[in-house]
Every structure is written in structure tokens, then in C-alpha cells.
Amino acid sequence: MKKTIIGEPLSNMPWQDEPKESQNVMWRYDRNPVIGRNVIQSGGRIFNSAIIPYKGEFIGVFRADHRNGYPQLHLGRSKDAIKWDIEEEHLKFHNENGSLRKPILYGYDPRLVEIEETYYITWCNYFNGPTVGIAKTKDFKTFIQLENAFLPFNRNGVLFPRKINGNYVMLNRPSDNGHTPFGDIYVSESPDLTYWGKHRLVMKTSHYWWKNTKLGAGPVPIETTEGWLLIYHGVCTTCSGYIYSIGAAILDTDNPSKLLHDCENYILTPEEPYETTGFVPNVCFPCATLQDADTGRIAVFYGAADTYSALAFTQVDELIGYIKANPNKPILQ
Fold this sequence. Notes:
There is one protein chain. The protein has 2 helices and 22 strands. It has helices at 273-276, 316-325; strands at 27-28, 43-54, 57-66, 71-78, 85-90, 93-94, 107-115, 118-126, 130-137, 143-145, 154-159, 168-174, 185-190, 197-203, 214-217, 222-224, 227-238, 241-251, 259-262, 284-292, 297-304, 308-315.
């Protein structure tokens, strides 16, 4: 059997077959949202979070907006990646010498990836404004915070799941200090996760309305026989505010700054009440995937309306076929 995803099997990942009436390449879990309001006492809303397989079950780093208004990162565990037990206390970070670090002012929109038997968290960290923080762990008990990857202002730092040409590689989105009304996706390299350079532009905003304001990398890219499958968010500006939709593209395996295919259409946009109504209406913000190399199944974990956490599903060959069949075209004259 042909396998498009380059990776490991994950037979216990959440999955729901596509509804017969569906005409979409990505479909929602019919019991969304999987995480609602006020599931922990310290935080009212959990969303835009990252999950990963771990020791036959699942573990995650969750954004929880605390009652004082500041978001923090919390650890969570699950047997099925749907029902989550999220810790009340937010993560504490240590220096590489073992000493406890000063608490971060805020942390949000984490991503989580395993590289060479070490787990890395990237998130939006405070450093006189937003930038990309990095931490590592071997056991999800002790977390070592590294130097921030970039100067402010930057967001949406997403590490690739392996080194490319000997270097760590991270997607990122230069921004400003507020609700950035612009943004393109870049890629940067590092030999040691400390010094970052070789910055290259990957994707620019488009004339298609759903991604004409800004873009940002979503989950950790999925390696396939066609290249790196990148699920991202695209944003447009309307008279009632921003709308965040989910898109997909394919990057070159050996040179991920090279965009091979980008889809002109969104693959998911806010439509359901838990996506259109909440703290920030009209947001679908993908941060994590689970995938099974044997079946090609992909589950997408996304934040909804900056209030809830939700699941959607797709199949890798169907998604890649859709991307290729609906390419990003130049503006029509």
C-alpha cells in the first residue's frame, strides 16, 4: 500500500469518517468543541494549543487565558486526545544550569514537536513585546527554557520535526506589538537553537480575500512524499473585524523556503457557533495535527473563537489532491 505520510503509524489517534453529505476536504468532529469554557479554575478559556503522541497516549501544552487576563502555558494529558486532564498550575521553566527561571509574563499559541528524542515547545513569549520562546524537555516533568529565537516582534514560531541540511528550521511571522494588520511567513535556520539566520520568505498574503491581510504557520509541518504539508491560517479584514480561516500548502522537502503548491481556497472557515461566537468571533486557528502514516489520516486540533478547542479531520491524499487542483493564481485582469 502506498504511504504518502513519512512517519510512524498512530492507530489510536482520534478519527471520524467523512459525513456522506460533506463536500469539504476537511470536516469537523461532530462533538466539537472538545474543550469548553472553565475546565480549570485558574483559566476561563483554553484554545490555540498543541498536542503530541506520548508513550501510547497523548500529551499537550495548552494556552489557558487566566482570570487576570494573561495567557499561560499548561500541561495536559489524555488517553484519546479528546478528553483532557489539564493541570491547574502553569508550566515552570528552568535554566540549563538547573535553576528556576523568573516566571514568564505571558505565553500563548504553543506548538510542540519531537526532534531526536527531545520535545520542544515554541510559543509567543514576552521580550519587550511578543517574540518566539523555545523550551525543551525529555520527560514533561522538567522544562528547560532556551534563549528566545528572535528579536521582537515575531509570532507563530513553528519548528520542523527534523533537521534539514544539518540545521534546525523554524517558520515564523514577523509582526508588531499589537493586533498586527500585516504578516507573511518566513523560514529561519539555526545550527544550535540559539543563533538564527538564513531568513527566507516562504509565503506572502494573497489577493484572495480570506488571506489578504496576514498569514501564519499552523501545526508542525507534515513530511510527505510530495514535500512538507503545511497547514496555516489566513486572515482577512472585514468591517466587523478579522476572520481567521485554515489553508494548506506544500513546501519543498530540502528547501522549505520554496513554495511548491498553495491552495487558492480555504479548507475550513468559521461557520459553526463555537467558531463564530466567543471572546474573539470568527476564528479557526490550527496549532497541532496527529497523523497516521499507515492510513493517511490527519486530525487537526484548532482553536475556535479564542474560546474553545476543536477537532477536524482530513485525509492526506485527498488534501494534497485538493491543493494541486486549486492552485493560487495571479490576480485576474
